[in-house]
Fold this sequence. Notes:
mainly alpha, Serine Threonine Protein Phosphatase 5, Tetratricopeptide repeat, 68% helix
Amino acid sequence: MSDLGGPLDWIPPMEPFSKAKAAAQHALALDPNLADAHAVLGTVYRVYVWDWPTGDKYLRRVIQLNPNSSFAHMMYAFP
């Protein structure tokens, strides 16, 4: 491991995805209409958990809340 930090250090994938999921769930508990929090959960479920239907549900919600979200459209388009 590098002591420079940042992208030079290896982090097990479970750690950042778990933290991202928890933070997004907390954000949605405060405001269920936060498009970015839905986008994070959609990404976590599709990329990490491999629960495509749940990920798609969150990404469709992002597109409802923010139809101009290029990130949501990009993630939703990935097979």
